[in-house]
Specification:
The complex is a heterodimer of chains A (151) and B (218). Helices cover 12% and strands 50% of the residues of chain A. The chains are: A mainly beta (151), B alpha/beta (218).
């Protein structure tokens, strides 16, 4: 995990711009949203420089009926060749909370690599079993505490 | 300490093993052998309480009926399974997981002690500096995942009454094998029992005095 970590707990609106520039190593950007009440609208804009390598991780946790609507937009201009960017969402909606997690890509250059992934939902069975085998039955709390620990 | 009577296990309609009986005192290690498919790993998971394994028979540990408990309750009673293929867990970092395990065992370590002990043990196992801050097993090789299991087992060995080791050697370099022996001996010395599943010839030879061949049971 890099130092580019931002944790937003019960925010209403978040707008963030980042411009990855690292050419030699992959630059990590991590955004964590922990919403326990109300609604959060978040816009993350990723504008990579030419030849940069980056990974954007977006983790969204919502409980108690809270709502999060998050768009992560990748913008690559014509002049920025060689960009390599991956955007990954992981969301945990608990207690009938609602999460919209949307990666968007606006790309005006064919010489780039852009990938994205989006996983929404509770724990996978193997994750659940593993935590149980360690005596943990409150998975929600384990995830929440872990995400808060980035703050 | 551990008493298993007439334990049979099915996954779906498939019978994995039948009528397994084990009696193991504190401080003893039992080697579980058998051909592929004999049910060695399934036996360990059945003892741990994996929900998709249907069992009949009884399992008791220190006179407590494990077979009536949920998986997490068995862990709290002192059953520790070092998994053969530990998963990655998105969103949960290693240190937070250790902290949660510490909590369910009624805090054998203060937070400071846990961080310090975990750091020493990760270093001892030659895991990367940032290991404890990483998401659990994220980007880890098979060998690193195994080392992570051994570190956890070592950290909480004083709370462990029954250590289940499911091929702890696979994916590990030869030099790390000694650490498995050290862990088994430390657990036994603390009065815990160990069930060991391994294909490693040296480990098999070392613990062959007390073994159960599941192929015979089948």
């Amino acid at each position: 995990m890099s130092n580019n970590v931002r944790v937003y707990s019960n925010f209403e609106n978040v707008d963030f711009w980042c411009s990855p520039s690292s050419v030699d190593t992959v630059e990590d950007f991590t955004f964590i949203f922990i919403q326990t009440e109300g609604k959060c609208t978040a816009n993350i804009n990723v504008n990579p420089n030419a030849n940069s390598k980056s990974k954007v991780h977006v983790y969204i946790y919502a409980e108690g009926g809270a709502e999060v609507d998050c768009v992560c937009t990748l913008n690559v201009d014509k002049q920025n060749s060689g960009v390599n960017t991956d955007i990954q969402f992981r969301s945990w909606p608990f207690d009938r909370s609602k999460i919209k997690a949307r990666p968007e890509m606006f790309i005006a250059n064919s010489d780039i690599i852009a990938t994205h992934g989006n996983a929404l939902g509770g724990l996978r069975p193997e994750e659940e079993y593993y935590l149980s085998s360690r005596g943990i039955d409150n998975y929600k709390e384990a995830i929440k505490q872990s995400l808060l620990s980035y703050a | 300490m551990l008493k298993i009577k007439k334990l049979s296990a099915k996954i779906g309609d498939k019978q994995i093993f039948k009528n397994v009986n084990i009696e193991l005192s504190g401080g003893e290690c039992l080697l579980i052998t058998g051909q592929n498919g004999a049910g060695k790993s399934t036996l360990l998971h059945a003892i741990m309480g994996r929900s998709d394994i249907n069992t009949t028979g009884t399992i008791s540990l220190s006179k407590k009926a494990l077979h009536k408990m949920e998986c997490h309750e068995r862990a709290r009673e002192g059953v520790f399974l070092a998994h053969q293929t530990p998963p990655t867990i998105d969103g949960v970092n290693t240190m937070t997981l250790l902290n949660e395990i510490n909590k369910v065992h009624n805090m054998p370590y203060t937070r400071g002690e846990l961080i310090s002990q975990a750091s020493d043990k990760f270093l001892h196992m030659q895991l990367p500096d940032d290991w404890k801050k990483r998401q659990f097993n994220n980007g880890a090789s098979g060998g690193e995942r195994k080392k992570n299991e051994l570190v956890q087992a070592d950290l909480f060995k004083k709370k462990t009454k029954l250590l289940l080791l499911d091929e702890p050697d696979s994916g590990l370099e030869q030099s790390s094998r000694q650490k498995i022996v050290e862990l088994i001996e430390a657990t036994c010395l603390s009065g815990g029992s160990v069930l060991l599943v391994t294909h490693d010839k040296e480990l098999q030879a070392k613990y062959s005095d007390n073994k159960l061949d599941l192929s015979d049971v089948k």
